[in-house]
Amino acid sequence: MDIILVPGFWLDASSWAEVTPPLAAAGHRPHPLTLPGLESVDAQRSGIGLQDHIDAVVAAVDALEDKVVLVGHSGGGAIIHGVVDSRPDRVARAIYVDSGPLGEGGVINDELPADGDDVPLPPWDGFEDADLVDLDDDGLRAAFRARAIPQPKGVAYGKQHLHDVRRYEVPATVIACQFPSSLLQEWIDAGHPFVAELARIHDVEFVDLPTGHWPQFTKPAELGQAILRAVDRTG
């Protein structure tokens, strides 16, 4: 199975380096992506919007022959949902890593402070405590900040536009990290707008991986196994 991995904000393809080995060892073909504007700190980010990132992933899907599994972390969840909408017949499963599908007209996060066309990684005190669980002060946080690349503002602030209701027929897996899956299901039952798009998907499974918002750094082996199990359950 071809598995396309879409990183969250401030990260490139290398952020999946400790997650993909079990996928490859099981005979799958992982394709971690670096999205436009995330090639380097000095990359051009002017004019890059959410649709540009969706289109880049769609191009990766179109370059492969068979159906794919999409994996999206954090803001990457909105991107892979846009890809599911664009290519519902080409996606065997969408896996949301501490993220979920973003509905029509939604934005990923337009409250992140921007500097021109860039959204730099904020100071750690700009995050909730739950975000930073297991991301220790001396090692992982420093490594993350050293590798962080500014996110294009147009991706963070841009509106999602969806067109094909067949997206709801594509099976989804939510790997819940910050919040337990039981809480997500309570929100669905209560009709919370945060999970309105997720609630419309016909086949959703929930997997708990308790840690902070960046399991690819804090629990990479466990995340790799969780993705592998979801892929193995995919026809």
Could you please describe the fold and organization of this structure?
This protein is α/β, with parallel strands linked by helices and 235 residues long. It has one domain: Rossmann fold, CATH 3.40.50. The chain is built from 9 helices and 8 strands. It has helices spanning 21-25, 50-62, 76-86, 140-147, 153-157, 181-190, 196-199, 215-218, 220-232; strands at residues 2-6, 29-32, 68-73, 91-97, 118-119, 151-152, 172-176, 204-208.
- Low-pLDDT parts are none
- Largest sheet at a glance? 6 strands, parallel
Question: How many separate helices?
Answer: 9
CATH architecture: 3-Layer(aba) Sandwich
Helicity, as a percent range:
25-40%
How would you sum up the global shape?
Answer: globular
> What letter string, H or E per element, gives the SSE order?
EHEHEHEEHEHEHHEHH
By CATH, the superfamily comes out as Alpha/Beta hydrolase fold, catalytic domain
Number of domains: 1
Q: How far is the N terminus from the C terminus?
A: 10 Å
What portion of the residues fall into strands of 2 or more residues?
A: 15-25%
Radius of gyration: 16 Å
Secondary structure category = alpha/beta
Kindly state the mean pLDDT as a whole number? 97
